[in-house]
Amino acid sequence: MKKIALLFAFVVGLVQVQAQVRGGINFFKGTLKSAFALAQAQNKPLFVEIYAIGCPHCENFKKTFDANAKVGAFYNKTFINYQLEVNSPEARAFRQKHNIYVLSTPLMSFWDKDEKLLHIQSAGDEQNNEAYIINMGERAINPQMQSAIWKSYFKQGMNDDNFLIEYAYTCRLLCDTTDNLAAMRTYAQKQKPEMLSSPTNFVVLQKIIMDDENPLFVNMMNHLEEFNKKFGAQNVKVTAENIVMYSLYCSRAQQYSPEKFTQMKEYLRRLGIDEQSIRGRFVWTESTILFKAGKDIEAANLIDAFCKNVKQIDKKDAAFIENFVKTKTTNPAALEKLDWIFKKK
């Protein structure tokens, strides 16, 4: 049956390729599963463009993919090609399976015939040209240049600035927070003081850093006025706020000390976030830690204080809070403290 399936995929792919205009890239028009079956049958890697409907950058790439003969010749010879709409059920399942976080579209990914990732990178209009697109494909099939080997290079001590930026960004795409933090700390430690607030490093803060202890982030928070003047107060606020939230909602937050939470809240105050909003962002993480430590009353008091400042708690909110609390404690005093919330469901 496997041989029949592979033969079917091969025939379907051949018919589709012959039916298409031989100008640009011939994208397979079946399912992703069938595309991998065709890759198996032809012993080729698979190029998967993850795009979004309505994305102008994706539309611009489509024009190049459809019309450029040299791009088409290279990709059709080298890969089985497939386009995956980012919000489709097929794409969601594929992204979840491989821990892919789409930061922007289009996202270009390359896979071997056995569905092992070879190379992945985002692309924008500045990369939408014949030379770059072909070079991207060449990197994907070169074992010394594809992103699959970068973790090994990093472990071996490679620390060129451009490499660290590209590797850390790829770690974000693949949800590898541990190496993202490590690469960016190595990068930050190499920066000269006068370069900490450079335009390049602000882009690094916007797109790559996920750690509020990174020296680049700490420098920004200690020089907010300078950053606001150079890059715009709103851009700085969004960038800094995002980094604090990344740090708060990551798994390592369960080991944070009270002092650490105090510092993070202070960062948000500096950005102009109001107190109730700050409480709302921290209450569930902090109370989870307190419950885990057996400090049920402290956790209940924290939730109680936050909820008393909420204008309205509806039935859905009350049900969520009750379920949250009762999965973490059976302490009668803690439950009694919050009973006024539970009754609202």
Automatic annotation (TrEMBL):
<dbReference type="InterPro" id="IPR013766">
    <property type="entry name" value="Thioredoxin_domain"/>
</dbReference>
<protein>
    <submittedName>
        <fullName>Thioredoxin family protein</fullName>
    </submittedName>
</protein>
<dbReference type="InterPro" id="IPR017937">
    <property type="entry name" value="Thioredoxin_CS"/>
</dbReference>
<dbReference type="InterPro" id="IPR036249">
    <property type="entry name" value="Thioredoxin-like_sf"/>
</dbReference>
<feature type="domain" description="Thioredoxin">
    <location>
        <begin position="1"/>
        <end position="146"/>
    </location>
</feature>
<keyword id="KW-0676">Redox-active center</keyword>
<feature type="signal peptide">
    <location>
        <begin position="1"/>
        <end position="19"/>
    </location>
</feature>
<dbReference type="Pfam" id="PF13899">
    <property type="entry name" value="Thioredoxin_7"/>
</dbReference>
<keyword id="KW-0732">Signal</keyword>
